[in-house]
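Researcher: I'm preparing a figure for a lab meeting and need a structural model of a single chain. I don't have an experimental structure, so a prediction will have to do for now. The sequence is pasted below. Please return the structure as tokens so I can convert it later.
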Amino acid sequence: MDSLHIPDSLLPADGRFGSGPSRVRQEQMDALFALGPDVMGTSHRQAPVKRIVARVREGLAALFSLPEGYEVVLGNGGSTAFWDAAVFSLIQERSQHVVLGEFSSKFAQESAGAPFLSEPRIIRTEPGTAAAAQADDEVDAFAWPQNETSTGVMLPIVRPEGAREDQLVLIDATSAAGGIAFDPLATDAYYFAPQKSFASDGALWCAVLSPAAIERAGAIAASDRWIPEILSLTTALENSRKDQTLNTPAIATLALMAEQIEWMLAQGGLAWADARTRSTSGLLHAWADRRPEITPFVTDPAARSQVVTTLDVDDRIDAEAITGLLRRHGIVDIEPYRKLGRNQLRIATFPAVPESDVQSLIGVLDYVLDAIEVAAQP
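Model: Understood. Here is the structure written out token by token.
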């Protein structure tokens, strides 16, 4: 396979298909470079930077069509930091976690390790399969991912049947937000980082908080629970209302995100983005159906992600050799999640990825697989 050359005519215009960090559009880079010295290298407490934070907060509110009382909150650190913030500020006594893979397991681990919380209830399923939260009177928060990035499993966002009004729903939307439609009223904390659909860098978390979540955070903050300031949601909320973060943010991250949000709104908003990711991921699953060497890792079609497609490769074919060949031709980051340890391709179809590039990628994979099949013939 080392000697195989893929014709340039088959290659996509942009070969970045990573599940995060994701491809950044050139228009975002142009907007970043145009900021100039009135923003870059200046105080984040002053108007030029505050205007960028406001663009992000107002843009997300419009993109998600937020109901009255829901607020967009920003904080330093990524989704990993928000897990800790939720442990300190949103879980009163005990949480329930649906664990589908690596990332959903990490939030459950953080909750289990908190000395001031009771042992969480865990609903665990095998990687590549789906599960649902279950009504439980002994928990005060339900937590699950809208999209498990490591496995490509997508879950619906609905409040568990029989759940009480005072039980919060916490949704990890890191790889789903901006690419998959949802009903904000079904959540109390819809949180994510910007390096997926929003085509930005890390070191920032964003959360849509319901009035119930804001009230819970305030009540816990007023209790005797010690909360580090950097992990306090009430502190993050107070700063966000001023269009700033507690500590200095990465200005480039905010600027790239603001540009992406406004581009998505100009295309038609979340409905447009949802339709696009359904289409592009659908192309990949349809391709897998016609290639005997390729099998969708997620066997239930209803649970297959719109934004992260995981495809098992026949064990007689070395998927790592394929991804290595494609990387040498400028098609990058389609390797499987490392801890999953499967002979697999993992291909992201966030909103910045057009159908034309996915179709080109499929053409490249067909070319390579056909060449492997010919070489294997006696």
